[in-house]
Amino acid sequence: YLGMVRPYLQQGKIKSIRVSTRPDCINEDNLDLLASYGVSMVELGVQSMDDEVLKASGRDYDSATVRKSCTQIKRKHLQLGIQLMIGLPGDTPLRDIATARDTISLQPQAVRIYPTLVLAGTKLAAMYNQGRYTPLDLEEAVRISREMYMLFCYHEIPVIRMGLQPGSELQNPGIVQAGPFHSSFGELVEQAVFLEQAYRAIRSLWGKHGRQTDLYLFVNWRDTSKMIGHRRANILWLQHDLRLERIEVKGSYLQQPDSIGVGRRDTEYPEITVTRQNLLDEMVL
What is the pLDDT confidence band of residue 45, given thresholds at 50, 70 and 90? Predict the structure, then answer.
């Protein structure tokens, strides 16, 4: 496969090659082979940095193996990608956050976050059917992923995917037995971030002008759907939780991407703005 791809790399028809493998499949010879064919990034299916979770999930390696493999990849001047899973057997939200912090210390060039799904015919499905495993629900999976996503953003580590690609196989009836599967999981996580920004922006406006119940939210026009949320979930939550009479989202070319502005009904421009960096500085310790 690599031999067939290499001419396209040499001709500039493709920019790079990346491969994925397990941490315990990394050794000097394998890395030399990959580098000789022009592979630029090696992604490791790490899943967790917690040894108890790895053992309970039957991964057959520990966190020390992960760290050694990451070091070897970097020594070969290859880019490092790390794939993580939340909600594995033995996992907890605190362990997921600890895994994110450990991952940051490894300084990867990219991260993927996947929620654990129960697929038919797997050992996990047997554990689930026997009552020995309980998957995350969608709301909890989004919340945990949001916290991890924000940690990585704060440390300027790109999160290149959240949630499994919703291919035709996963969408066949009976394949996913349980777990937080959603075709737009990553979008839900980003919507959760925008909701937190909007909440803080409104509270800041109230601190300046007193409680207001008729408001505009200003976002970059590309971010409109992320602010509104799936089936208007963000708007409905803000209206209910903050007891707002009316709130309207206005898309603007002038608003900085990933930022939320808020203003009273008689204003045409935001009076308070919360940028993504503002949110990260407040929430990430």
Answer: very high
CA distance 47 to 103: 10
Best CA proximity match to 233, nearest among 189, 266, 275: 189
**Is the CB of residue 48 less than 8 Å from the CB of residue 91?**
yes
For the beta carbon of residue 15, count every other beta carbon within 10 angstroms.
8
pLDDT in tens, 131-176: 999 999 999 999 999 999 999 999 999 999 999 887 777 778 889 9
Q: Does the global pTM surpass 0.70? A: yes
Whole-angstrom distance, CA of residue 187 vs CA of residue 249: 18
Hey, what are 97's tokens? 């956050």
Q: What is the pLDDT of residue 285?
A: 59
- Do the Cβ atoms of 72 and 31 come closer than 8 Å? yes
Of the candidates 7, 89, 101, 10, the one whose C-alpha atom is nearest the C-alpha of residue 54 is 89
- pLDDT tens for each residue of 208-224: 999 999 999 999 999 99
Query: If we measure between CA atoms, which residue out of 64, 101, 65, 60 comes closest to residue 84?
Result: 101
pLDDT of 69-115, one tens digit each? 999 999 999 999 999 999 999 999 999 999 999 999 999 999 999 99
